[in-house]
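Q&A log
Question type: sequence-to-structure
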Amino acid sequence: MEELKKFTTGKFLSFALGFFGLQFAWQMRIILSGPVTENLGASPFIFGLIWLAGPFTGMVVQPLIGALSDKTKSRFGRRRPYLLGGALLSALALWALPNSEIITNTIGTTLGFNIHPLAALCFAAVMIWILDACVNIAQGPYRALVPDVVPQEQHSVANSYISLAIGLGSVVAAGTAPFLKWAFDYQMSINAQFIMAALAFTLGMAWTCLMIKERKYEPKEEEKTEKFNFFKSMKEFFALSPEVGKICWMQFFTWIGNMCMMIYFTQYAVHTVFGVPDLSGVSEAVKSAYDTQVLAGTNFSSICFAIFNLVCFIVAIPIGVLSVKFGNKKVHIISMLSMAIAFIGMAFCHDVKLVAILMGLSGIGWASICALPFAMLSQYIKPGTEGSVMGIFNIFIAGPQVFVCTLVSWFINRCSFSVPDGVNFHWEYTFIIGAICLIAASLIASRVKDKTENN
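Response status: OK
Response body:
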């Protein structure tokens, strides 16, 4: 392997642009999948089950693709075929998702049979699963690029640039529709927002693939013929260091807490902050009566996610700099506790302005979550195993989401109360669960021995 050269600011920006597009697409999926699927008849529990797409594809796809990318040898490099392929397939799913009802009706008309009322919901669920799988195809090899092409001493900074890209991509994705409404009184359609996301993902990833040159890696003879063995890889993963297990448990509780907000915030904004009853089982007349409030709640959710990710964007590089000075662990603990405090505030106060402020505060934690755990883990990665290690590590990001998508959604589905036009649910309870898990993650992080600390 040739010697790695230090990255300049311009090269870091080119490196991060692909993740800007990836996060742009993911943010559209976070904000708009709830309104799309609820309009097609999804209850809170069904909505949670649909969200299982993310964790299941993450646990299966990322370890497999990560290991494959370690062994891939092509004229385009080890990682780039997966980055661009994932982006292109995601673009197709992003176009099809908001058009699920039109597509299923067209298929029924063409084939000459009646479409079941839930066919569109099932089709939308399949598109979400495809989208999540393709995002994971790109994301694992992308994370593996950091130890692949960036010098060890710049890993924290590289991951901070990824955090910056995540923050900026999410700000633009979440803020475009509300900005156009505020500035020009133009309401951007859901279809148009998904198409915008598809273009951002494809073009951003294409730029990174063109501008970042992968170094050559020639696997050993035994590596060329060795097949991927999940259990062996897991054993080798935890044998890297005793600290790896602690980092994994930290990630496990971190992502339960984080996803309690990510998955359910739009529903919380629409139904708790703006008081819209559950619309999954009501008549079209009732749905029409709440169109304005649903739109206002969805736009408010977009604004909050824009604030959340703007803070992430602003603090991403400072967090990287501070982690070099004070250690990854200390900075990460403070960031996670700030997010826990914000969650507790949103659980008990539903004032529009305060919720927006608290979402901004939680953005500090998000910037840290996107960077420092990966920097902590990358200290223990052996050359040539970057993809498989990052893929296995993703299990401790994806696995917690299964808990959130099933048990938490089931719990919320049980916590209903009557309102004039039907029922509503206590979506704010998700923030209490999230805060408890973030505090637990902080306690585990305090036990991790960070190599960046000055002993």
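Response note: The chain has one domain: 9-212+239-445.
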